[in-house]
Design goal:
The protein is an alpha+beta fold. About 55% of the residues lie in helices and about 10% in strands. It has 2 domains: about 80 residues, no CATH class; about 120 residues, no CATH class.
Length: about 230
């Protein structure tokens, strides 16, 4: 009995309860979300009612069918809007923090893109970082921080990637306080808009090549002089 009580207490909330929690969180951080969601639901319902009045021709069944179709379409549109606004609200809470881009690459990459939440380059003093994503659109370097501080880091990574993969398309994005930077919640959509030029096999090969390149750049532990290291005897 005790185990059953514990399992019921730790049971995850149902789908409807989860959606309600997401709605409450979104409304808390996005005051206009309720108007967008309400409008997204009401518009298809109104269209369904108008169409039912015009084309039902006195048939109750057709009238009800169009109204139900409008309600279902309204629910679908409202859920889509809720998902978009909830994603934006969630990212607004971490925007500007170190590692925010990594959180996006970990959880929101579209199909066909590969990325890591760990940066490939970091400025220890300012916490500015460079992240990398690989997909059918090529290699994308994403800087996190003011462009005035990350330009040099981006140029260094661009030269490194171009040296190893000279024929692969290379794109750079900036996420930061600059006016022309990409908002955090739009990073995934911006990647999806890049024209696909590579095959899936090429994406996998390029990703593996870059990962091996990054692993070879790991710093040598302190206290070890590489010039004095000797091979072990058998």
């Amino acid at each position: 009995m005790a185990r059953s009580k514990d399992s019921s207490a730790t049971k995850e909330p149902g789908r409807i309860k989860q959606m309600w929690q997401v709605f409450q969180m979104t409304r808390r951080y996005d005051k206009r979300a309720i108007w967008y969601i309400g409008g997204g639901f009401a518009l298809p319902v109104i269209v369904g009612i108008i169409v039912s009045l015009l084309f039902s021709e006195g048939s109750i069944f057709t009238l009800v069918l169009w109204i139900v179709a409008g309600v279902m379409a309204g629910i679908l549109v409202a859920l889509i809007i809720l998902g978009r606004r909830a994603e934006k609200a969630a990212y607004s809470q971490i925007e500007g923090q170190a590692g925010a881009v990594g959180a996006v690459l970990r959880s929101s990459l579209k199909r066909g893109w590969r990325g890591s939440e760990m940066p490939i380059a970091v400025n220890g003093k300012t916490q500015d970082a460079i992240y990398r994503a690989v997909g059918r659109g090529g290699v994308v370097l994403i800087s996190e921080g003011p462009r005035s501080r990350t330009t040099r880091m981006v140029d260094e990574e661009r030269r490194r990637v171009s040296k190893v993969l000279p024929n692969v398309p290379l794109t750079t994005l900036s996420v930061g306080p600059d006016a022309d930077s990409v908002p955090l919640h739009k990073v995934s959509r911006r990647l999806a808009k890049i024209k696909p030029l590579l095959t899936k096999a090429e994406v996998l090969a390029i990703s593996n090549r870059l990962e091996s390149l990054t692993s070879n750049q790991l710093p040598i532990p302190k206290g070890i002089d590489p010039r004095k290291v000797r091979a072990k005897r058998a």
